[in-house]
């Protein structure tokens, strides 16, 4: 029997830039996590400067969405001098919490931004109730659990910590082959420190073995006969296990992916939003099938349930790339008088059938019977990026909806 939580379950989505933030807000995130130009664990996305951070907080709060700012790198001595100003700024603009991993940064957050809630990052590697309680006593409101825990272990932690200490756990996205993201591989191989947000993902590379006295002779490494990607972990997907996560005591379900696309944020946020809502509204009913189908419409590696159900995620052994079954064709800009206006993202043609992702409802299809350019000239294809295209459509489509099509293999 599924037990409903006493407090609302939070859906926490990534926002690597303004476009991804807008996707998270539109498709139902309760909270977002994002970074400034410093101290965040992802340097690949553009992130937010001081003014953009303030704008992001205003946008999110207007939508009723909380904002957590990442400050979870392991900074060196020379980086610490900039930290007080950064902490004071994010408190001043009204961010809801700061995410930290380093004990010194935690202490500085309490000193320079005392009104900010503090969340402890997964980088801290919390795997037991003693560690969770220690951070609580230091002023943490929430701990982000290590990714290596099982559901039973999470329930054991929940049973031995204060009721007001929140537990956050990753439910979807890339898995790191190292312990809770603390990896040295990137720093060793090309001097990019993963613990300061600059990982080059060498765990995704293909490796061979070279014997010292036989330079140039490469011998394949085989974990199994199918390949040589021995460090390439599968992606995490817990879309089918929301009840178990909630019953284990997880307060916030976190989607990985600040470096992923706005489309990824939209699809995964929408899927988990609907999965959570379906569970809360009908706890004894199975999740609608279309929700689990949605997470296969983004680029992803083979899915696993991580460590939650016992065992380990395993590796994708035969390639370092992604499974890609759908691509974005266009984004809805307007609908009126039976005409859908979209902004093109990938080429599509007259006669295509496009799959529509609209916030809060199952996907549906519309045929492209005919179309014109922005000036009303008939066209048979939409080949140019961001060009405006008008399509006769009997069904109203909301602004921001994503139109997509299967990828031809």
Inertia-based shape = globular
* Number of extended strands: 22
Structural class given helices, strands, pairing? alpha/beta
Say which CATH homologous superfamily of the largest domain is assigned: Aldolase class I
Percent of residues in β-strands:
15-25%
**Mean pLDDT score, rounded?**
90
Biggest pleated sheet = 8 strands, parallel, barrel
Q: What is the CATH architecture assignment of the largest domain?
A: Alpha-Beta Barrel
Give the C-level CATH assignment of the largest domain.
Alpha Beta
Distance between the termini: 43 Å
CATH domain topology of the largest domain: TIM Barrel
- Biggest sheet, strands in spatial order? 1-2-3-4-5-6-7-11
**Which segments are poorly predicted (pLDDT under 50) over 5 or more consecutive residues?**
none
Structural features, described:
By secondary structure, the protein is of the alpha/beta class. The chain has two domains: 10-178 and 233-304, Aldolase class I (TIM Barrel, Alpha-Beta Barrel); 326-406, Beta Barrel (Elongation Factor Tu (Ef-tu), domain 3). 25% of the residues lie in helices and 23% in strands. It has eleven helices and 22 strands. The chain has helices spanning 18-26, 50-62, 77-80, 83-92, 103-112, 129-137, 151-158, 185-190, 242-247, 262-281, 289-294; strands at residues 10-14, 31-35, 66-71, 97-100, 117-120, 142-144, 166-173, 208-210, 218-220, 235-237, 252-255, 303-304, 326-336, 339-344, 348-349, 353-357, 364-367, 371-373, 378-379, 381-382, 388-392, 402-406. It has an eight-stranded parallel β-barrel with strand order 1-2-3-4-5-6-7-11, surrounded by six helices. Strands 17-16-22-13-14-21-18-19 form an eight-stranded antiparallel beta sheet, covered by helices on one side. The protein has a two-stranded antiparallel ribbon with strand order 8-9. Helix 7 links the parallel strand 6 and strand 7. Helix 1 runs parallel beside helix 10 (262-281) and helix 4 (83-92) crosses helix 5 (103-112). The protein is globular, with a radius of gyration of 23 Å. The protein starts with 9 loop residues before the first strand and ends with a strand. The mean pLDDT is 90.
